[in-house]
Amino acid sequence: IDTANRVSLFAERDLSLGSAITTDNLYIFVGRNVSLNDSASIQAPTITLTAGQNFNASQFFSDETATRSSGDVVLSAAQMINIAGDMTILRQNGGINSGLNIVLSTGSDFAVGGDLSLATDISNLSSGANIDILTTGNMTVGGSLTLQTSAAAQSGSGANIDLRVGGTLSAADLFLGIELAVQSPQESGENLTLFAGQDLVAHNQTNSGGIDLEIITPIQQVVSAGANLTLSVGRNVVTDAGGDTTLLINNNINEVVNGANIFATIGGDLTTNNLSVELRNNGGQIGTGGNVLFTAGGSITAQGDAIFDIQNTSGTIGSNAVLAIAATDLNANSLLAEIDNSSGGVINGSATVGINLTGNANIAGDATVAIFGSDGTTDSAIVFNGGNYNVGGQMLAYMDGNGSISTFGNATMHADVLKMGVFGPNGAINIGGGILSADTTLKLYAPGSNGQLNFVSNVTLGGNSLKILAANSITIFDKVVVTIGGELPADVYTNNANYTGFGGNGSTTGTFAGAGANRPLPLDQAPPFGKSANQHINHGKTANRAIRIKNSSELLALLDDTVPGEGGRSRTHGTRGLRHGRSADRLNAARLARPDRSLADIRRIRDGDATNIRLGANTKPF
Length: 622
Prior knowledge:
The chain has 622 residues and is mainly beta. Among the domains are: 244-390, no CATH class; 552-615, no CATH class. 4% of the residues lie in helices and 53% in strands. The strands form 4 sheets. It has a 49-stranded parallel sheet that branches. A 5-stranded parallel sheet has the order 13-17-20-23-28, with no helix packed on it. Strand 57 (562-564) and strand 58 (570-572) form a beta hairpin. Helix 1 (552-559) crosses helix 2 (575-581). The two termini are 52 Å apart. 54% of the residues are buried.
């Protein structure tokens, strides 16, 4: 069948297609099953297919540019969609005003034996380019699952991705990306939602299956609402041992009026290699939003690094900025949880980093919880609520300006080196019970002109380490006892020793016990806090990683994904870049090859030799 107009096919029972159909608009409505065999092909920008029972195909490929009709693709089966091989749907704009939406829905399961690749381009559309998958049962993809919306020119509202699975979602590898990193207006949308009622699993034969969810907003534009990333899983999230889990919003040098939030809720456990949850707003603006909330009903386990990060260097967030982590247990090789508001960053509300644990945190290396640029906020707080922390290296809680660090819920911490420091004039540390212990050094510092170290509940400072308490005022509240473990008394440096005994002024009934404390010395005699005071923390460590390249095509794809690094060297985006590079040939028409824009994509929107801040350090503004 070959016609420039619409083709409509109706069948009361079953329909089997074994030939080619070429048209502008294809409409199929079948009472029971629709089957496409190996010789069948559909060339139509706009497709509507409804099956009363199942939709079966050996493969499904549709790569079209819409010039007259909407370019929408709607495939619906009351029972199951079953594609034996690959399923690829790509849509681009050839002159229409709205459309290019892809909607796939099933009443039971959705199975693809090979790769599932869906892509839309919202360029020059007033609305559309959305991708929606709704499956009430399980969804299984034998190869890679890739959903991407992108833009190369201005657009209106849309470019949303919504993947909802009632049961378990499993794929060899999973990438959902909204890639709008162009210097062209985009009005609203750009929301990414992944919901799985049961488990979310990424597994392949090379043991490298990962989960990558990313939103990259436009450059130097204003998005009125959107750019929200939502992950909701009823039970467990599991990747391969060599597969990472990434949740990223990149709003560098762009403005989002309302949105740019990461919300992740996992009912059970998360098990992955490296975990990265990042909101980047460097040089950007967020009106209402800028929050990262990550909750697991069970354990969070990262064999490598666990990174939770809000970056707002030279940026502005118009409301509160909250980084909140909640779980039963937290296990990782290293932990970083920070809000970086340095280099003139402004948060017109409070900045809060909160960790709420009901079980244990086992960190093999270092754990860092920090707020930089806290003076650029109305208030800043780091809060540890409950949990038993065991850190093999250094446990650091740090704030470079005003704000507070607090422990509640009998939080217990043990590390080789344990340090808490708030360095603004009005900084405060509040210890609300539990046990803080270290093998080598324990330091609690609030050395500002009005700095306070407050012990509000009974606490033990344990271990055989050197214990140093330094603050303008050190207060042990009435009826509170601070027990010093080990054989050495604590060294105290303060101008106001608000406690009883051990050289205190007796203004409260609180006191020391155990090994006690030395008589206080003036604060200006306190030893340095040590490394990491006024120093930024490295954003993740990637030591001893290897990239396996099978052929020259993969090498070229990898090189195309490099960005400038330190010392003039090039770096890649890690294993994600190689993974997407392998999809380059299959999805080149929709540019499905980047977790971030390549140099070629970015350079075409520069003015002169201006450098994009998204590419890293040593940059120039547009």
